[in-house]
Design goal:
Blueprint lengths: L1 E4 L2 E10 L5 E4 L5 E6 L4 H10 L1 H16 L11 E4 L2 E9 L7 E4 L4 E5 L4 H27 L9 E5 L6 E3 L4 E5 L7 H13 L8 H10 L3 H11 L6
Helix pairs in contact: 3-4, 4-5
Length: about 240
Amino acid sequence: MIHNYSDQTISFEIVYKKRKSMGITIDVYGNVEVQAPRGASDERVRQGIEENWEWILQKSKEMKDRALGQKVKVYDHSENFLYLGNEYPIEVCHDLNIEQDYVAFDGDMLKIYVKQPEDVKIKQALKRFYYQQCKMLVERGIRSYQKHFKTKPRSIRISDNNSNWGTCDSRQQLTFNWKLAMAPQQVIDYVVVHEMCHLVHLNHDRSFWRLVGKILPDYKEQETWLALSSWKMTV
């Protein structure tokens, strides 16, 4: 079925089930399914769609983009970059007087100051910004959750290892992926707690997960965010 509202169109499939309320699901390809109670009127279905209109549009686009995979970034004001879970446009500022290229977050955009407005320089400045922010955010998380642990990490590193969000080795050295700065604070906290729990349990046994759940009861929500959003955490 197709429904028009607010100058936009949504295509969806409707399934009638034995249930009391209406539900809306969006699959990994962005297809929308409306699950309605048996006997529900067209008006009730329409109302349910319109009440959730913005969420449906946003989630459907997100899933379609995810299915297409990572796209090549462009470095102008038309492109958005993630920071702490939100997407922000960039503004490239050409400044020959600065000593080093850098990025400044001003609340509604990421301003990138470069001597030479070249893509490679802009990308390097963004990556350096995320490295710095990740280190600050991770260290803040460790200080916040240290009260739950008797053991402290011996060192903290930020790395470019794309295969892990974080690691803890036998020397009690914690390493974190710089892209974590793109995730919401609660997701960063989860990865921090996850690795700090490895200071106590090196493997992922039941005792490990019990400790994670004791400190962060909602940790599975943060895992889900990473699973659904990691594809767009890129520069």
